[in-house]
Design a protein that fits this description.
The complex is a heterotrimer.
Chain A: H1 4-35, H2 45-55, E1 59-61, H3 66-83, H4 106-126, H5 130-161, H6 166-175, H7 182-198, H8 217-221, H9 226-251, H10 261-288, H11 297-316
Helix pairs in contact in A: 1-3, 1-9, 1-10, 2-9, 3-4, 3-9, 4-5, 5-7, 5-11, 6-9, 7-9, 7-11, 9-10
Chain B: H1 2-14, H2 19-46, E1 54-57, E2 68-71, H3 73-100, H4 105-124, H5 128-147, H6 152-183, H7 188-195, H8 200-218, H9 227-233, H10 236-261, H11 271-293, H12 298-323, H13 329-366, H14 377-380, H15 382-395, H16 402-421, H17 423-455, H18 462-465, H19 472-490, H20 496-507, H21 512-515, E3 524-527, E4 533-536, H22 538-557, E5 565-567, H23 584-587, H24 589-594, H25 596-599, E6 602-609, E7 616-624, H26 628-651, H27 656-674
Antiparallel strand pairs in B: 1-2, 3-4, 6-7
Chain C: H1 3-26, H2 30-55, H3 58-86, H4 98-118, H5 130-147, H6 151-173, H7 178-205
The chains are: A mainly alpha, B mainly alpha, C mainly alpha.
Chain lengths: 317, 677, 218
């Protein structure tokens, strides 16, 4: 494999994730609509929204400064950088054959996502007004509680794999497929709890609302418009699919270890199937549960934390 | 170098009439001294894998011991950290004191020169006596700086500080004196040789005593109560030095004693040491950041973050102690862990220095420290704001800056090391890693608050509305430290060679430049068991990020038909006011609620209603949180001391004969106890 | 069924049992806890069946069947019925905060692993990690009984505890003798009936909860 190939693959997977992100949101919305006996918008609706936003002009809050303009750009960039780190179509069979200039591992991925969240919150405060502040405050609170659990889940896998590199983990797991042990079960449950929180869905956040009492993420986007809003919305779609891909890389890693075109196509099909399963899971949960009261969240995330902790304990003790 | 500090100190005494000259002269002395320190440190760390050791014998001042200065790899690295921040502080100082100084310039300049000089002496000390003397000088010099701005609160802060510091020094003195009595000499080399003959329990007792003494200086929970009082009270560039550097000198002591002087001759360290340090580190990290979140005084908030970062460094040191000298992959991970701790020492000095200087700029422009009265400074002070944001991203351990790099290395050491250790220790290491992630998340929340409420939104007071950007020299000092943050973040591989000398000095084996940058300076790698491992190229990641940002910016800035226009923020149809902006108290409320068990929040609400309960005339809200260590530990301790003191007072008659009788009894008892031996 | 496969299945079932236990501990509403304990009983029955199939022990099959019928179907049904009849508040009122309970539960699991590693001799190859998991389940069941106010939640805790004992017994001796198992199940049924009747009666005469029984002392 040449020096450039791993980079080309990483960038190709990144582009794929960014392009497919809105589609996943569209599919989830469609599934939810069908579950609620509505027709719903087409699955391509998010793309239409995005192109509309891109064409529009910007209305900016008159108190906002240079941060407000810089934030959407940086948020989208950091989320895309995170998308380059998760294996989708291809996982190297061993760590040794990875790129000579590795782009990063799971910790960097979570770091990029955290940077995106940090900057979004900064942008929300720049406009002034209570909605942005409330959204930022709540989002940072939830993130604070989610992040350690997410790390713990990643670590529960990486203490046996001996690496936090997602490609290497997926490759390692793909080689010994079928040995889905007891710790994996617990960690997967923890991850599903976190998936709901990290993608901003019921019961943690309600993506469909603009009611000030219920919104977390949307509250921060309230003052953005036009291309800035385009960046933030696309970043949110991308983040959702990245977290889904992270679940798959850690727990359902049937990812081909070859770069032959046929293997890549197979990988794409498998990825689509697994993502669809996760999308159905999200749609089902969103349709059948109510949003939790904000201060009930620690308890909900506590399930995730304890499961992840037990997974690590089962591995190490 | 020491000469330059002394010159700076005396210069300030010679020219007391003009405050301006004294400050300029004194700070240039500081600057020259610090630059000499940088040169010396680099010379010392660059000399091969184990570094060069310099030795200077001082003229004998005491009949019973001779003083010497020895600078080895470990000391040199810490000297480098001290010197970098000291350079920035020296550049920053004069303009800051001109704008905001209230104390006597002679005291300020003398104090800061003595302070930095004695820190350098601690790091160069070649024997226990020099160490203790310089240690004491450091405490006293920083005490004068803490109280230099005058004021009741500062005096109280100084009192708490000096009591805690002296309690710590007393413990250190016990440790060093008992070591010296074993060795028959104060010299570190002799102590090192004699310490190999100590029995296991003796060694551990001495280590824990030293840890308590040094922990009081480093601000380890629960010995941290003086820190948030004393650090904000000093002038801001001194706060930067105290927070960014002085705590590190205490950590240098932990490394010097734990891994060098007291370490057993062969075999792994006692596991209880590593455990204790790891647990203390995790607790300090989480508790420090949790209390930081509820502070609304910018400098106090930063001071609590120092408790957090000392905790993170201690986690690395503790993991290194657990893994050291176990052979195989554990050795490499121990080196990685120690390198992470040392790198975080440098990083914390850089970003905490930067943040304190930023807070100082806000202070000198507005004379306000309470965030609730600030706001909207971002447009009036763009340089300070962007530089503060850089520091905030770095301290929140977010890529692509330096905080992320050292925390990434700590994560790798904890997780891969946990996989190596297995069992209870492994589980503890992985849980500590999760605590580190929690710390990072909380720090991010805290700095969104600190930055957002101070620099964004609308100004909440007239002073904040009229702030102007600070002097160029102050900006230059901040830019220097921000540059360190960016460089260490983007090309960390080149810094690894600086860490070689201290790590090899303490652990032996291969240095981090051989282990961490085994695949070239652009790639950091951590080796796990059985050939697995993680690699990361911060340079590539940062380049990708920059390229993506440019691309996205290009898409967004593409000219389009509709122009950008301004409109007021949406506030449900009312005219926006600064009172609609989210306050720091409100921002931190969800976390105050969630961690209520720790904070014990107190709130008082007074409502004055009009004719109907729905018309509010006036609403007063008051609330605060308590520091559990302060209320549960120190107030009880204080009560105990007061009780004993009262009991003693009833025995003190006030007559001179009575006191002489006590002296006589004490003398007799002492003779009886020790006379036979 | 091969012993290796059985070991893996029982380990996996152990993980699921722990997860249902977490759900019981974290449940904010009574009926969720009851569903969770029913699911746990189904898993226990499955574990019994797996072990029975591996060791060709007919008793285990019978016990698994009884467990399924009684603890997974009949008793949860009874409890849900009591809830509907009495119209108790469906929110669980914890004595100890739920997040604190979860933290204690984490400690219990670590302790259970620590204990069972010192009991190495009685651990069987075939049941893998079942011993520590069983001990942890038993203790966490007691934790549920300790930390919740309502009588019915205590019933749930008792079931969970009993499930844990069953799992422990499986780990140590491939199940207790049939007669003991039946006795235990009868005990549980009797307990559930008494508790159910008590809740119904007490509710109908005085509006009291068991946390308030301390008023009865002299």
């Amino acid at each position: 494999m040449g020096r450039a190939t791993p980079w080309a693959l990483a960038l190709g997977q990144m582009a794929l994730l960014v392009l497919l992100g809105p589609l996943v949101t569209g599919v989830i919305q469609k599934l939810k609509a069908r579950l609620q006996c509505r027709r719903g918008a087409g699955i391509l609706q998010p793309y239409r929204d995005l192109t509309k936003l891109l064409r529009k002009g910007t209305v900016q809050a008159d108190t906002a400064g240079s941060f407000f303009r810089a934030v959407p750009v940086l948020v989208l960039a950091s989320t895309c950088a995170a998308a380059a780190l998760v294996p989708v179509l291809f996982a190297p069979p061993a760590a040794g054959s990875a790129s000579p200039l590795p782009l990063g591992d799971a910790i960097l991925l979570l770091g990029w996502l955290a940077l995106g969240r940090f900057l979004t919150a900064v942008g929300a405060l720049d406009a002034g007004g209570a909605f942005g502040g409330m959204g930022a405050s709540r989002e940072m609170t939830v993130a604070t509680l989610v992040e350690p659990v997410l790390m713990l889940v990643v670590f529960s896998v990486s203490v046996v794999a001996g690496t936090t590199d997602l490609g290497a983990i997926a490759g390692h797991l793909s080689l010994r497929r079928g040995s889905f042990g007891a710790p994996d079960i617990l960690a997967l449950f923890a991850m599903l709890v976190l998936l709901l929180a990290e993608t901003g869905r019921i019961p943690v956040d309600n993506p469909d609302t603009h009611l000030e009492l219920t919104m977390l993420h949307e509250g921060m986007l309230l003052e953005h418009s036009g291309p800035g809003l385009f960046c933030l919305v696309l970043a949110h779609h991308t983040k959702q699919i990245v977290v889904m891909a992270l679940v798959q890389a850690l727990f359902l890693p049937w990812i081909p270890a070859s770069t032959a075109p046929f293997a890549l196509a197979l990988g794409l099909g498998a990825f689509a199937a697994r993502t669809l399963v996760l999308a159905i899971f999200l749609a089902l949960v969103e349709s059948s549960y109510a949003k939790l009261r904000f201060f009930r969240l620690p308890q909900f995330l506590g399930i995730g934390f304890l499961s992840a902790f037990l997974a690590v304990a089962l591995r190490l003790l | 170098m020491i000469g330059a500090y002394a010159a700076g100190a005396t210069a300030s005494l010679l020219a007391p009439r003009s405050a301006r000259t004294a400050r300029a002269l004194g700070h240039s002395g500081l600057c020259v001294g610090a630059l000499a320190g940088v040169a010396l440190a680099i010379r010392c760390t660059a000399g091969g894998a184990s570094g060069t050791t310099l030795r200077v014998e001082l003229p004998s001042l005491f009949p019973f011991a001779h003083l010497s200065l020895v600078l080895d790899g470990l000391g040199a690295f810490f000297l480098l950290v001290v010197s970098i921040v000291a350079v920035a502080a020296a550049v920053y100082g004069p303009a800051y004191l001109r704008a905001h100084g209230t104390g006597s310039p002679a005291v300020e300049v003398l104090g800061i020169n003595l302070f930095v000089g004695s820190m350098a002496l601690v790091l160069c000390a070649g024997d226990a006596l020099t160490f203790l003397l310089a240690w004491e000088g450091m405490t006293l010099a920083s005490y004068t700086l803490v109280v230099s701005e005058g004021g009741e609160a500062d005096a109280h802060a100084g009192l708490v500080y000096i009591v805690m510091a002296h309690a710590g020094t007393a413990l250190l003195m016990v440790v060093f004196l008992s070591l010296a009595s074993h060795a028959g000499s104060f010299d570190f080399a002799a102590i090192r040789a004699a310490a190999t003959a100590l029995s296991g329990p003796e060694r551990s007792v001495l280590f824990f005593l030293a840890l308590a003494g040094l922990g009081a200086k480093a601000g380890v929970v629960p010995l941290h109560v003086w820190l948030p009082l004393a650090h904000p009270a000093a002038p801001s560039h001194v706060s930067a030095l105290m927070s960014g550097v002085m705590l590190k000198v205490a950590l240098y002591g932990v490394l010097r004693l734990g891994l060098d002087l007291l370490a057993p001759a062969a075999g792994p360290l006692p596991p209880s040491w590593g455990w204790t340090v790891l647990v203390l580190g995790s607790t300090s990290a989480v508790i420090g950041v949790l209390y930081a979140l509820q502070q609304h005084d910018l400098k106090r908030l930063l001071a609590f973050h120092s408790v957090e970062n000392v905790g993170i460094i201690l986690m690395g040191i503790g993991m290194a102690m657990l893994l050291a000298r176990r052979g195989g992959a554990a050795d490499a991970l121990a080196a990685l862990s120690l390198a992470a701790a040392l790198l975080h020492t440098l990083n914390h000095a850089a970003f905490k220095g930067l943040l304190f200087l930023g807070a100082g700029s806000v202070l000198s422009a507005t004379h306000l420290r309470n965030m609730e009265q600030l706001g909207g400074l971002g447009r009036r002070m763009p340089w300070t704001a962007w530089l503060f944001l850089t520091g905030a991203v770095a301290i929140s351990a977010l890529p692509p800056l330096n905080g992320f790099v050292s925390e990434w290395m700590t994560f790798q050491a904890l997780v891969l090391g946990g996989g190596q250790l297995r069992g209870g220790a492994g589980l503890a290491a992985v849980v500590a890693a999760s605590a580190l992630a929690l710390t990072g998340g909380l720090a991010a929340a805290c700095f969104v608050k600190a930055f957002g409420v101070t620099f964004l939104g609308r100004p909440r007071s007239a002073r904040a509305a009229e702030a102007v950007e600070v002097a160029p020299s102050m900006r230059a000092a901040m830019i220097l430290l921000a540059a360190v943050c960016v460089v260490v973040g983007v090309v960390p591989g080149y810094v690894m060679s600086l860490l070689d000398a201290p790590v090899v000095r303490l652990l032996g084996g291969a240095g981090p430049s051989a282990l961490v940058t085994v695949r070239g300076p652009l790639v950091l790698s951590a080796l796990g068991a059985a050939g697995a491992g993680t690699a990361l190229s911060m340079t590539a990641a940062a380049a990708l990020f920059a390229a993506l940002a440019l691309l996205v910016w290009g898409i967004c800035a593409w000219p389009r038909a509709a122009a950008r226009r301004l409109a007021p923020t949406w506030t449900c149809g009312m005219t926006p006011q600064s009172r609609f902006d989210y306050t720091a108290t409100a921002f931190a409320k969800p976390l105050r609620f969630i961690f209520a068990a720790l904070y014990r929040p107190r709130r008082e609400v007074e409502k004055e209603t009009g004719p109907t309960p729905y018309v509010l005339r006036r609403l007063r809200w008051e609330g605060d949180v308590v520091d559990l260590a302060e209320t549960e530990l120190y107030q009880r301790l204080q009560a105990g001391v007061m009780r004993t003191a009262r009991a003693v007072r009833s025995r003190s008659t006030g007559r001179i004969h009575g006191y002489i009788a006590y002296v006589l009894i004490t003398l007799l008892l002492t003779l009886l106890a020790f006379g036979r031996g | 069924m091969s012993p290796e496969l059985a070991t893996r299945l029982i380990d996996a079932l152990g993980a699921l049992l722990l997860f249902t236990m977490i759900l019981i501990l974290a449940a904010g509403q009574l009926y969720r806890a009851i569903y969770a304990v029913a699911a746990q009983s189904v898993l226990i029955a499955l574990a019994g069946a797996v072990l029975g199939a591996t060791t060709h022990n007919l008793d285990l099959w019978i016990v698994a069947g009884i467990t399924l019928l009684v603890k997974a179907i009949a008793l949860p049904w009874l409890l849900l019925r009591v809830i509907r009849r009495v119209g108790i508040r469906r929110e669980i009122e914890p004595v100890v905060p739920i997040t604190a309970t979860l933290a204690i539960a984490g400690g219990i699991v670590v302790l259970a692993f620590h204990l069972s590693s010192s009991l190495g001799a009685v651990r069987q190859a075939i049941t893998g990690n079942a011993l520590p998991v069983g001990i942890a389940l038993t203790l966490m069941g007691v934790l549920v009984m300790m930390s919740r106010r309502e009588a019915l939640t205590q019933m749930v805790g008792l079931f969970a505890s009993e499930n844990g004992i069953f799992f422990t017994a499986m780990a140590v001796s491939q199940g207790m003798p049939l007669i003991i198992e039946i006795g235990v199940v009868l005990d549980v049924i009797l307990g559930a009936l008494v508790m159910g009747v008590m809740v119904l009666r007490v509710r109908s005469s005085v509006d009291a909860d068991i946390a308030e029984l301390d008023r009865l002392r002299g």
